[in-house]
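Suppose you are handed only these lines of text.
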Amino acid sequence: MPDKETLSSAQVKKLLRQSGLKAKKSLGQNFLVDDAVLNIIVEAAELSREDVVIEIGPGLGILTVELAQRAGNVVAVELDTKLASLLRSRLGSLANLRVINADMLKLTLSQLLEGENKYKVVANLPYYITSPVLRYFVEASPKPSLMVVMLQKEVGEAIVAVPGQMSLLAISLQMYSKPKIVSHVPSRCFYPQPKVDSVILRLDMLPEPAVKVADINDFFEVVRCGFSSPRKQLHNSLAHGLGAKPAEVALLLERTDIDPKRRAETLSLEEWAKLYEAWTISKQDEMQ
Ligand code: SAM
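From them, the structure of the protein bound to S-adenosylmethionine can be written out as follows.
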């Protein structure tokens, strides 16, 4: 096992060359080469020997070693077969590390956890699957207790957005967690350097959804309809998305005290919950 895990850009380059590898852009392979950033991620995860950690995309194992040294068990999922076998040979001495060579999004949680039901997620995510990975875990059962992930700055900022700049992704994540940007990370902290900067995002999972709704899937259906034409005013996007008559939507918005001229991005979670509730009641009335 390597003693000092953070590698400089030159060392990463050398290791890749010696192993006959090249960083694959298509797999989001931007390796972390900064000690301070590594420490911030690990500190934010507040690890102890009780913890089981799932790491997505261990790459050359820079973060993996730190996780294995602090957590009870680490499950690292790497899609790139060559990187996965390099990782197994470099970090083979870590008895509490299991490397799975697979596409994270094609694995079930039980394949990852093998009977455990408490876990954390810590990762420097490949940018191209950030949203599906986050959605995978917030919708999973059981959910992680905590997620600390590095992702593209703009995506992180969109996730912690407040009403005025909300999106479907922000609502999905804020419904299940309290997201917070822990640190900004400039692109020079990676090799090869990506075109964009990153942030470290910590998501503390909530024991219950942030707002109480009768059926969470139906709730998200209404939100999705609201965002179906995000540039349009709410009365238009809802009529279009819900397939409802303009008069029906006007009544719905009046009942919930929401100005029909507002756009979906301006609504808070509480307002979406009110809107969903009013829609459910109007559907029930229609059926009677
Ligand atoms: N953790 C390393 C680090 O911090 O230097 C590498 C991070 S790099 C941004 C993302 C890693 O995710 C790459 O090693 C890439 O091969 C891997 N990866 C990409 N798509 C994946 C997928 N669908 N499932 C699992 N790993 C994936």
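What can we learn from it? The chain has two domains: 9-205, 216-287. The mean pLDDT is 94.
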